[in-house]
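User: Design a sequence. Structure:
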């Protein structure tokens, strides 16, 4: 090609050269020789300028370009061009995406859930066994039984699926809570300025006063429902692996057996009772935490809780919510695991009646002690890790 340009410069005749070669040089930004490259680029730019000013035409035939014979191909300093190809900064785009409020809250919830479950997996195993009536009713004895039967690793039975369950569950739950809380707060402020929402039926107009609704309570209920709908199959798998490891020795076998026996519906066994039990727990849990946190900060005239205070407030919130909703949790677990023994009650009321008939009213709180030992540290640690991760991931938006 360079020889072609030399011939052109000497003979002042029209020269044909492959246009794909020019495009290649432009795309790759290869500098074969400073003088030659700048000469070629000058030729292309000059064509465009001359074509506009003097109405000259430069023809392309396939891969061939026709250059005018009066074009000066001698290298000059005035024709130096610096090509700069700008590519998007993928790292910066990704960092900006991670720094958005919603993604930061989602990731904070996922990380907090994973770290909490890794620490408290043994308590979760004991709690599940006691709730469904497997093994001893004594916490210490139950620990010993698990170690004798399955070894130390038995305390982490089902922990793989538990981790797979808790990461998306906590991410969705905490992310949903924050989003719905902001949306409800914004909507209530708007209604205060523009008036309550109205429903027009013919000539009648109904006004709904929603100022009594707590954005935190609504957000807590929404968080529990959304996370349950999204992650319930993982809860089913976790319970099967924990309660009947001899029947379901691995996650793959558990998925295969449950799907073979009940299809997709089998993975959503006990969804109704789970939602019924989740609503009061999730609503109370988030409402208690936010209310206590704001009241304490207001009383102490401070903007936020310390890590130790978060731990205590989160633990107390979990204890209160668990105590209120625990009978529903017992019924839910019995319905979910009852299919393993072939005597599953038809609905939650029947499950509650069966527990009362067999064990009395105290049966509704069987395993409550183990549940509190698990729920209290779990709630406290989760909130502590969650707020800590938000401080890291949302440092520039923390008080927006």
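Assistant: Done.
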């Amino acid at each position: 090609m360079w020889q072609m340009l030399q011939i052109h410069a000497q003979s002042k005749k029209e020269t044909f050269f492959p246009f794909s070669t020019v495009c290649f040089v432009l795309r790759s930004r290869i500098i074969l020789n400073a003088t030659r490259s700048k000469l070629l680029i000058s030729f292309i730019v000059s064509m465009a300028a001359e074509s506009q000013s003097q109405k000259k035409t430069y023809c392309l035939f396939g891969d061939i370009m026709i250059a005018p014979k009066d074009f000066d191909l001698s290298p000059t300093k005035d024709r130096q061009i610096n090509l700069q190809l700008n590519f998007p900064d993928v790292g910066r785009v990704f960092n900006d995406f991670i720094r958005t409020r919603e993604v930061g809250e989602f990731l904070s919830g996922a990380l907090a859930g994973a770290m909490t479950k890794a620490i408290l997996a043994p308590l979760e195993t004991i709690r599940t066994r006691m709730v469904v009536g497997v093994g001893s009713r004594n916490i210490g004895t139950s620990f010993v039984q698990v170690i004798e039967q399955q070894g130390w690793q038995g305390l982490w039975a089902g922990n793989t699926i538990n981790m797979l369950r808790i990461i998306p569950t906590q991410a969705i739950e905490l992310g949903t809570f924050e989003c719905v809380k902001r949306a409800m707060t914004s909507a209530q402020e708007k209604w205060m300025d523009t008036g309550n929402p109205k429903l027009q039926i013919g000539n009648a107009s109904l006004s709904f006063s929603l100022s009594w609704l707590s954005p935190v309570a609504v957000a807590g209920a929404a968080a529990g429902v959304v996370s349950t709908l999204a992650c319930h199959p993982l809860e089913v798998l976790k319970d099967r692996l924990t309660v009947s490891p001899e029947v379901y020795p691995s996650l793959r076998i558990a998925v295969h057996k449950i799907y073979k026996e009940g299809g997709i519906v089998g993975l959503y066994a006990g969804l109704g009772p789970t939602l019924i039990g989740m609503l009061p727990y999730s609503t109370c849990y988030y409402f208690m935490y936010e209310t206590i946190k704001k009241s304490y900060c207001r009383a102490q005239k401070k903007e936020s809780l310390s890590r130790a205070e978060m731990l205590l407030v989160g633990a107390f919130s979990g204890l209160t919510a668990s105590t209120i909703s625990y009978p529903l949790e017992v019924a839910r677990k019995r319905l979910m695991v009852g299919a393993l023994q072939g005597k599953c009650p038809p609905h939650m009321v029947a499950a509650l009646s069966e527990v009362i008939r067999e064990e009395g009213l105290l049966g509704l709180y069987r395993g409550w002690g183990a549940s509190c030992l698990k729920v209290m540290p779990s709630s406290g640690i989760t909130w502590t890790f969650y707020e800590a991760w938000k401080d890291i991931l949302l440092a520039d938006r923390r008080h927006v």
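The longest strand covers residues 15-18. Strands lie at 15-18, 60-61, 64-67, 198-201, 204-207.
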